[in-house]
Amino acid sequence: MKSKIEKWYPLFFAISFAILCSYFYKGNPSPNSFDGLFSAATTLSGIMIGFLATAMSILLTIIKSYVVQQVINAKVYDKLINYFIDAIQWLFVLLFLSFIGLFVDITKFDQSFRIPAFGLWSLAFMTSMLSSYRVIRLFASIMRGAKY
User: Fold this and answer.
1) Please, which residues have CB within 8 angstroms of residue 76's CB and are 6 or more apart in sequence?
2) 6-42 pLDDT tens trace
3) What is the number of other CB atoms lying within 10 angstroms of the CB of residue 96?
4) Distance from first CA to last CA of the chain, Å, rounded?
5) Is 10 a member of any domain?
6) Are 83 and 141 in contact (CB under 8 A)?
7) CA triplet 5, 143, 62: central angle to 5 degrees?
8) Is 141 a member of any domain?
9) 47, part of any domain
């Protein structure tokens, strides 16, 4: 059961967050620009992609360590690598959506387009953040036990 929760909680909470963001955005006037938000998200996702790719390469470097061998023997290594890849993929989605948001002025569109667009961006943001948190938490627990 814990494995299912660990696998799906980023998406579950992100969907809930996107629905809440869309709900609260619906009745409020749009800000003049989302450029600052999209710019920060682009920078953050780019940095996190680099960080997670580096962490994954460290994991591959210490593959012969006792702790990583225990992770492999417990058949958790593939799940951890998949979590790394999932987080990086969601960060690329966030990067792509934020990059588009920098060039497309969303405030010029009708409210019926802005709400789903902002909801989709919120979904990508929260899923990428929670997926990154999940993999960093698991990676940190492995690194705490690694003997060099």
Assistant:
1) none
2) 778 888 889 888 888 878 777 666 666 678 889 999 9
3) 13
4) 33
5) yes
6) no
7) 115
8) yes
9) no
- Mean residue pLDDT of the chain comes to 85
CA gap 58, 142 in Å, rounded: 11
| Closest by Cα among 46, 37, 33 to 96 | 46
Give residue 114's Cα distance to chain centre: 22
CA distances from 131 to 9, 14, 27, 40, 145 (A): 9, 10, 30, 18, 22
Q: Which domain holds residue 107?
A: 2-25+56-145
How far is residue 73's CA from residue 126's CA, in Å, rounded to a whole number?
Answer: 32
This model's pTM is above 0.90: no
Question: Does residue 1 carry a pLDDT above 50?
Answer: no
pLDDT in tens, 51-90: 999 988 988 888 888 888 888 887 888 888 999 999 999 9
Question: What is the C-alpha to C-alpha distance for residues 35 and 71, in angstroms, rounded to an integer?
Answer: 43
In a domain? residue 37:
no
Q: What are the backbone angles phi and psi of residue 117, rounded to the nearest 5°?
A: -65, -45
Which run of H or of E encompasses 128? helix 111-145
Domain count, the chain: 1
E strand or H helix at 130, and its extent? Answer: helix 111-145
